[in-house]
């Protein structure tokens, strides 16, 4: 199963993280911590009034789609997406299966005046510290990966000054996620076991989350503006990667979602 392989590779990388590695992105101007202003993902999602809240994802490749877009100039890509009206950026940092890199975050952070979400398979608390030092504002925590450790990781993220976005895919995972007190819950429409997407996952799970007064992000499989219209009464925001990255003009594709 692909998820097991990705988690295994992430675990090996995380075990190799040393304190020197974790602080290698620290801002030289302020020694231990980066000087970048902080941006709230929750506020960015719930604060948009005249547009849809889109988290645009910088993703070079994926196990399901293969090559999407070479990101040779991350600053240019991120500025293009911000110009297109996204409320936040998601940066995939997983190297082996998604061709991402943690270095993309420090490369763009000083120019980026929207929240930055680090998207990876977090399995070790050392990665939380690494995420903060890289300059991210929020971190993805996957319920299917962390299981009963989820609560601990939510607390660790908050302690590090990061907003956790907790990812779920079924009812049991929603219950686990709600128990941690997480404010932001991402419903992954993609089944990580067979990589198939089904937008009705959001329609099925969102009411449980809204009833608990939490914010819902619809993740994966949003391909066209009509998908936003389908999910509008269920989700507060949308996380979109492949459709934007594979478009000939990513900014224009993003604008279609923002103003759908
Ligand atoms: O490219 P899409 O179908 O728009 O999906 C984006 C995002 O939801 C997807 O990349 C994703 C959701 N959860 C993840 C966990 C790890 C890596 C990637 C992901």
Q: What are the defining features of this structure?
A:
260 residues, TIM Barrel, globular, 14 helices, two-stranded antiparallel sheet, alpha/beta, binds indole-3-glycerol phosphate
Strand content: 15-25%
Bound molecules: indole-3-glycerol phosphate
Task: Pick out the low-confidence regions.
Answer: none
Q: Secondary-structure element sequence?
A: HHHEEEHEHHEHEHHEHEHEHEHH
Structural class by SSE content: alpha/beta
Total domain units: 1
> What is the arithmetic mean of pLDDT?
95
The CATH fourth-level homologous superfamily: Aldolase class I
The first-to-last residue Cα distance is 36 Å
Radius of gyration: 17 Å
Helical percent range?
40-55%
| Biggest β-sheet description | 8 strands, parallel, barrel
Q: Would you give the CATH topology?
A: TIM Barrel
* Number of H- or I-type helical stretches: 14
Strand order of the largest sheet: 1-4-5-6-7-8-9-10
Number of strands: 10
CATH class: Alpha Beta
- Would you identify the CATH architecture? Alpha-Beta Barrel
Domain Indole-3-glycerol phosphate synthase: 25-254
Family: Belongs to the TrpC family.
Protein name: Indole-3-glycerol phosphate synthase
Keywords: Amino-acid biosynthesis, Aromatic amino acid biosynthesis, Decarboxylase, Lyase, Tryptophan biosynthesis
Can you put this structure into words, describing what you see?
With 260 residues, the chain is of the alpha/beta class. The protein has one domain: Alpha-Beta Barrel (TIM Barrel). It is 42% helix and 17% strand. It has 14 helices and 10 strands. It has helices spanning 2-15, 19-22, 41-47, 74-83, 95-98, 104-108, 125-134, 143-146, 150-159, 171-179, 200-211, 225-231, 242-245, 250-258, and strands at residues 54-58, 61-62, 66-67, 88-92, 116-119, 138-142, 163-168, 184-188, 215-219, 237-240. Strands 1-4-5-6-7-8-9-10 form an 8-stranded parallel beta barrel, surrounded by 7 helices. A two-stranded antiparallel sheet has the order 2-3. The longest helix is centred in the first third of the chain and has 14 residues, at 2-15. It is globular. The N and C termini lie far apart (36 Å). The mean pLDDT is 95. The structure holds indole-3-glycerol phosphate. The site of indole-3-glycerol phosphate has 16 residues, from strand 10 and helix 13.
